[in-house]
Amino acid sequence: VDTVFTYTDSSVCDVTELPEVSTLDSQDNNGVVGTWSVSEVDDVYTYIFTPADNCYNEFNFSVTVSDSVDTVFNYVDSSVCDAAELPAVTNLNTQDNNGVDGT
What we know:
The chain is an all-beta fold. It contains no helices and four strands. It has a four-stranded mixed beta sheet, with no helix packed on it. It is rod-shaped and about 75 Å long.
């Protein structure tokens, strides 16, 4: 019999905190109790739930970690005199040259 969780495979960037096994549910959606372990191969973290009752199947989900990418804008550092008007934040682009949205 399969164990059932709402955890799904996902991808995150390398600045994201990965879940600790101690924070994952200790029983599945049907009340099956077990323990979690995690293994990592080539930036893919596989979380494995092993049921205490061997009548149930293991459950696993993976988190793939990718390198962060720098945002790119055409803005450059500059110096101005103290009488110059600075650009309003609301006038700056909210999307970089690669289509990444932000504030």
